[in-house]
Write a structure and sequence with these properties.
- The chain has one domain: Chloramphenicol Acetyltransferase.
- The chain is 31% helix and 24% strand.
- The chain has seven helices and 13 strands.
- The strands form four sheets. Strands 3, 6, 9, 10, 11, 12 and 13 form a seven-stranded mixed beta sheet that branches.
- A hairpin with a 5-residue loop joins strand 12 and strand 13.
- Helix 3 packs across helix 6.
- The protein is globular, with a radius of gyration of 20 Å.
- The structure holds oxidized coenzyme A (CAO).
- The site of oxidized coenzyme A has 20 residues, from strand 7 and helix 4.
């Protein structure tokens, strides 16, 4: 078998770990890796999640306008000293769509057979770190600006990488985004982060040729999104309507201005 440098403590082979060498070594003996910390928590929560009846809804969205907006923020607002990516725009537009479809921002209590519609949009962002997979959440996204979301995302990322997230940072999430595309892959099909009822996987944005309305071939930046949901709470039609709304905001981010507070 070909594995990463055996001095690496990180079983994920994550290049964010200072312990991981880029060199490969041949190793012929079995090794036992006890599950600890975030990895142990992931094993527990995913075992729970696997008992939930899931369904997947896949859609592709055109990110051209989103990428232009991000470039414009970066050029025009360089004095803020912030690196803009498109993720905060996706987080904000997701919150706008959730305002219209609150069932996706809910929790399910199996015992009482009750759905609790959550008052805040606490949007979790899955982060693979050298310490394992962790999902800190950005609290009250509905009342944050895009700059505030960008700063909060960066704060959470720094803390996640140094394994210093507080229990408040990782609890109280109401829906999760897993941006697997920042590492690679067209789309993922994740399991919900219990007791949340939806998790959204973002695929890698790819430039591909598309036909425009006049039948001409033109390049477009396309991203696949996969919304995995708890089928006890949500049905396909609700998720499809929610996704249409979110997609509208992603493809025409100027529409955000109409409703944003
Ligand atoms: N497709 C294409 N490009 C992407 C992308 C995607 N889906 N997601 C991010 N990128 C790009 C960004 O635009 C940025 O581009 P530039 O270098 O040109 O500026 C670059 O990749 C790096 O982005 P980033 O990851 O630093 O920033 P982000 O705001 O997109 O994400 C954070 C922030 C904290 C979520 C991220 O750093 C992180 O930790 N990602 C982990 C993702 C992960 O672990 N996914 C697996 C989850 S398993 O369930």
């Amino acid at each position: 078998i070909l594995i990463e440098d055996s001095s690496a403590k990180n079983f994920l082979g994550d290049q964010t770990s200072p312990n991981v060498s880029s060199a490969y070594v041949w190793e012929f003996e079995d090794r036992s890796l006890p599950l600890r910390g975030f990895h142990r928590a992931m094993a527990k929560s995913m075992t729970l999640a696997a008992k939930i009846p899931h369904f997947q809804y896949v859609e592709e969205v055109n990110c051209d306008a989103l990428l232009d907006l991000r470039a414009s923020f970066q050029n025009e607002m360089s004095d803020l000293g912030i690196k803009f990516t498109f993720l905060p725009l996706l987080v904000k537009s997701l919150s706008m769509a959730l305002s219209k479809y609150p069932l996706l921002n809910s929790c399910f209590n199996e015992e009482s057979q009750e759905v609790l519609l959550k008052g805040s949009h606490n949007i979790g962002i899955a982060m693979a770190t050298a310490h394992g997979l962790v999902v800190p959440n950005i609290k009250k996204v509905q009342s944050l600006s895009i700059v505030e979301i960008t700063k909060e995302l960066s704060r959470l990322q720094e803390l996640a990488l140094s394994n210093k997230l507080s229990s408040d940072d990782v609890s109280g999430g109401t829906i999760t985004i897993s941006n697997i595309g920042s590492i690679g892959g067209k789309f993922g099909s994740p399991l919900v982060n219990v007791p949340e009822v939806s998790i959204i996987a973002l695929g890698r944005i790819q430039k591909i040729p598309l036909f425009d309305e006049d039948g001409n071939l033109c390049p477009a930046s396309i991203m696949m999104i996969n919304i995995s949901s708890d089928h006890r709470v949500l049905d396909g039609a609700t998720v499809a309507r929610f996704c249409n709304e979110w997609k509208r905001f992603i493809e025409k981010p100027e529409l955000l201005m109409l409703q944003m507070r």
